Each structure stands twice: as C-alpha cells, then as structure tokens.
Amino acid sequence: MPQIWPMNWVTLFFYFLVVFLIFMVLVYFVVNIPSLSVSKKVAQKQSLSWTW
C-alpha cells in the first residue's frame, strides 16, 4: 500500500479534528438557535450552581 501523504497519520488526525470542530459548531447552533431565550434563562440558573 503506497503512502500518498508523507505524514498520513498527522493529516488524518488533522482532518478528523476539523470535521469534529465543524460538527460541534453545527450541533451548538442547532441546539441554541430554536430556543435562544429559553437557553438564556437556563444558563442564568445553571451559572449559580456551576463552581467553575
């Protein structure tokens, strides 16, 4: 099996990281845009219970 990329594991990890970040951004917008006012109220309640 010939290696097309000289650093195939590094490029594979880089592509996986980029796809994962894009997926997390899409999930963030899908979760937060439809219930934006509700999530603000929930965030205000959770900020009191969060210790960090």
From TrEMBL:
Q: Know the name of this protein?
A: ATP synthase complex subunit 8
Give a Gene Ontology cellular component term annotated to this protein: mitochondrial membrane
* Keywords for the protein's UniProt record, in alphabetical order: CF(0), Hydrogen ion transport, Ion transport, Membrane, Mitochondrion, Transmembrane, Transmembrane helix, Transport
- Gene behind this protein: atp8
UniProt GO BP: proton motive force-driven ATP synthesis
Q: Output one GO MF annotation.
A: proton transmembrane transporter activity
Q: How does it sit in the membrane?
A: Single-pass membrane protein
Out of the domains of life, which is the source?
Eukaryota
Main subcellular location: mitochondrion
* Membrane spanning residue stretches: 12-31
The record's comment on protein family reads:
Belongs to the ATPase protein 8 family.
Subcellular localization, as worded in the UniProt entry: Mitochondrion membrane
Q: How does it assemble?
A: F-type ATPases have 2 components, CF(1) - the catalytic core - and CF(0) - the membrane proton channel.
